């Protein structure tokens, strides 16, 4: 079936039904026009993933492989996968990054709790597109365990790396500091062209997007810090 | 000494990084960060050169003493060889 994903027409050749249900909100009304990208999973990839994801259904495993196959081909189309939770507020997107377990969903959950205008675009694996000198963050069906997100694209206003701490503090990162942290959160394709383009897109991402490090606990104060730095707005004025 | 093919070098956020591609990415996972000298030498040794040539090139570029340049080049070449990146 053909889906519309991150502004692209993507043909997905799946064998298990799982992916059709999973991607149904992204199904294209036009199943005949040419596509930008076409993916299927090879037996080799499937069995490799199955070894590492014991206990999961074949549909789930094929689905993981399909997204990876899509994402490996994105850089030539000016796009890349970012492992992050992207929130939308007042028309702008903000990406929160950190190793698994650092509290991305906790922190974004706090935004949702305290700011009625906040929405999750993609809770785990958004696609970014570089367009007209800026990045767009897209919702995709692949959005993490909590399944939070929706089919949209928002202009990316900032990146925020998270670290657990006792005191809340936000620091602006230099492009080099952001680069050293972001490598764990991107997918590096194995072919030369897409690998090189991934690095070039990542360079643009850390140089052209404001990047911060939030040292935070799980209090409202943490939201105030990240909100004010990222949006440039006063928290008190926006808080409901 | 010559560094094997199969690496991509780019500046990300002002720092040079090297990643393996193609066949190389199957044997080596990860990414190498290079400082300024490292980036210069990586480029230089992407073409077959001797240690002496590396020392001369480094001195021409950075105006450093021979002994310092030699120590840098030798350490670089040693790291490349021990990592299995030399042809």
Structural class of chain B: alpha+beta
Query: Could you give the order of the helices and strands of chain A?
Result: EEHEHHEEEHEEEEEHHEHH
Number of helices of chain A: 8
> Roughly what percent helix of chain B?
40-55%
Structural class of chain A: alpha+beta
Segments of chain B where pLDDT lies below 50 for 5+ residues? none
Report on the structure:
The complex is a heterodimer of chains A (240) and B (87). In chain A, α5 (175-182) packs across α6. The longest helix of chain A is centred in the last third of the chain and has 17 residues, at 192-208. The N and C termini of chain A lie far apart (43 Å). Chain A has 240 residues and is an alpha+beta fold. Chain A has eight helices and twelve strands. Chain A is globular, with a radius of gyration of 18 Å. Chain A has helices at residues 18-22, 43-52, 58-72, 104-114, 175-182, 192-208, 220-231, 235-238; strands at residues 2-5, 8-13, 37-40, 79-81, 85-89, 92-97, 119-122, 127-131, 134-138, 153-164, 169-172, 211-216. In chain A, the strands form two sheets. In chain A, strands 4, 5, 6, 7, 8, 9, 10, 11 and 12 form a nine-stranded mixed sheet that branches. Chain A has a three-stranded mixed sheet with strand order 1-2-3, with helices on one face. In chain A, 34% of the residues lie in helices and 27% in strands. Chain A folds into two domains: 2-73, no CATH class; 79-238, Alpha-Beta Complex (Phosphoenolpyruvate Carboxykinase, domain 3). Chain B is an alpha+beta fold. Chain B has one domain. Chain B has four helices and three strands, in the order ββαβααα. A three-stranded antiparallel sheet of chain B has the order 1-2-3. In chain B, a hairpin with a 2-residue loop joins β1 and β2 (15-20). In chain B, α3 (51-62) crosses α4. The N and C termini of chain B lie close together (7 Å). The mean pLDDT of chain B is 95. The chains are: A alpha+beta (240), B alpha+beta (87). Chain A binds chain B through residues 174-180, 183, 188, 190-192, 195-196, 199-200, 202-203, 206-207, and chain B through 8, 10-15, 17, 19, 21-22, 25-26, 31, 33.
């Amino acid at each position: 079936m053909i889906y519309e994903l991150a502004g692209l027409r993507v043909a997905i050749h799946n064998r298990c039904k799982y992916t059709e249900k999973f991607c149904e909100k992204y199904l294209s009304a036009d199943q005949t026009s040419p596509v930008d990208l076409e993916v299927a999973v090879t037996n080799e990839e499937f069995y490799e993933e199955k070894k590492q994801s014991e206990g999961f259904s074949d549909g789930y495993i094929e689905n993981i492989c399909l997204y990876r196959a899509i994402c490996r081909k994105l850089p030539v189309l000016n796009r890349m996968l970012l492992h992050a939770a992207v929130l939308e507020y007042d028309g702008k997107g903000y990406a929160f990054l950190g190793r698994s377990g650092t509290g991305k969903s906790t922190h974004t959950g706090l935004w949702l709790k305290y700011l009625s205008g906040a929405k999750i675009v993609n809770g785990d694996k958004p696609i970014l597109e570089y367009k007209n000198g800026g990045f767009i963050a897209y919702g995709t069906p692949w959005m993490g365990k909590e399944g939070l997100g929706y089919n949209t694209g928002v202009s990316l206003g900032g990146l925020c790396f998270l670290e657990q701490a006792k005191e809340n503090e936000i620091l602006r990162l230099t492009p080099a500091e952001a680069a050293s942290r972001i490598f764990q959160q991107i997918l590096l394709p194995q072919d030369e062209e897409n690998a090189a383009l991934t690095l070039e897109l990542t360079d643009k991402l850390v140089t052209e997007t404001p990047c911060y490090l939030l040292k935070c606990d799980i209090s409202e104060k943490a939201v105030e810090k990240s909100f004010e730095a990222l949006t440039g707005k006063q928290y008190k004025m926006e808080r409901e | 000494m010559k560094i094997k093919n199969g690496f991509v070098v780019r500046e990300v956020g002002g720092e040079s990084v090297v990643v393996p591609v193609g066949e190389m990415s199957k044997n080596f996972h990860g990414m190498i960060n290079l400082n300024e000298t490292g980036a210069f030498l990586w480029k230089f040794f992407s073409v077959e050169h001797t240690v002496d040539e590396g020392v001369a090139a480094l001195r021409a570029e950075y105006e450093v003493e021979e002994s310092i340049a030699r120590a840098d080049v030798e350490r670089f070449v040693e790291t490349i060889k021990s990592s299995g990146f030399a042809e």
